[in-house]
Amino acid sequence: MSETHFNMTLKDSLSFENTEIAFRHSSNNALKRAYWLFKIINVNFLVKIGPPITNFAINIGLPIKGLIKATIFNHFCGGETIAECDHTIKNLAEGGVGTILDYSIEGEDDEQVFDHTRDEIIRTIDRASGDKAVPITVFKVTGVGRFSLLEKLDAAQELTADEQKEWKKVQQRVLDICTRAFKLSIPVMIDAEETWIQKTIDLLALDMMNRFNKEKAIVYNTYQMYRHDKLQSIKDDYLQAVDEGFILGAKIVRGAYMEKERKRAEEMGYPSPIQPDKESADKDYNAAMKFCVDHINRIAFVAGTHNEQSCQLLAELLKEKNIDPKNPHVYFSQLLGMSDNLSFNLANADYNVAKYVPYGPIKAVLPYLFRRAQENTAIAGQMSRELSLIVKEKRRRGI
Description:
This protein is of the alpha/beta class. It has one domain: Alpha-Beta Barrel (TIM Barrel), CATH 3.20.20.220. The protein is 58% helix and 11% strand. The chain has helices spanning 3-13, 19-22, 28-41, 44-59, 65-76, 86-94, 111-128, 147-154, 161-184, 195-212, 230-244, 258-268, 278-294, 308-320, 340-348, 362-378, 382-397; strands at 98-103, 136-139, 188-190, 219-224, 248-253, 299-304, 330-335, 353-359. The protein has an eight-stranded parallel barrel with strand order 1-2-3-4-5-6-7-8, surrounded by seven helices. Helix 8 (147-154) crosses helix 10 (195-212) and helix 13 runs parallel beside helix 14 (308-320). The chain is globular and about 65 Å long.
């Protein structure tokens, strides 16, 4: 793409207000369902009482799974299996948006479950192979290993003989996933988690990058910029990548555990790892993007953000450096069911975009869905923004 064409594309096409493009993939009925769903989520009281009531209803056998699947699950998830996600994958691809299949099972604590999760993640990599509509894959280390074991490692506590064997199994599962990704040349992101297990995850991710990122970015680690130390982490890891001869893979997000992190720090009497305010997190997020763009030949990154200003800034940074918006080292990413005005308008302007598409059995995915709803109500203005865009498109269609 020529620089002239690139500049015209940015100037003429990159508007996050175009609801016709944002909701082109949504039928009138889907748009109406989204309207009522976000109206409900916007009521904090309902979001707080919803999880315990829903869990109680499921545990005593009330037939509400169908209602959940037709509403919140259908909006934020692709399906219960990879095959059920095919419709979502196709729907997103028609708007130029890729899919990141996210097997969203949380809170398990069993070796057989960990093996099953490893095998399922490998199946997502197999599904992505040869399909440009599924450009990236993802997993959590706690999906293939016990949280308390990682916590013990992070605290530098001595492991028992059995725990040492258990840790080797966790490492092998991660290696199995990354080996498959390398063999099929499919990027795989390792999600960030709580600070008190993150150091172990970081070391594991860097080891995988050193093994598999010599020629191409296959393994990505995740940097949560609501932590005040993570901008420096990216810079330090970049220097390690240069020194050891691999490409740094980085997914940059603001973060997902802020309230939990602050509460734990206060209860245990250590300094909070969280930024003092949102402005500080935004500043570091944007600085991290700039650092990655400045070192684009040695850093491949995914900007995971629902922030319009950050998306606009990244587009402008790419323009300033005359970097092709289709450069494989740069991706924008949002969650399924949210910020379609960002995802589809960016894709329409020819940028690389992929949405997280969570999937899994309804009951197992409920913790993810409840957390997503609670996080969204905590983001000032996010639900109101979603609603206003849906209302604007409903009026445009006359429905």
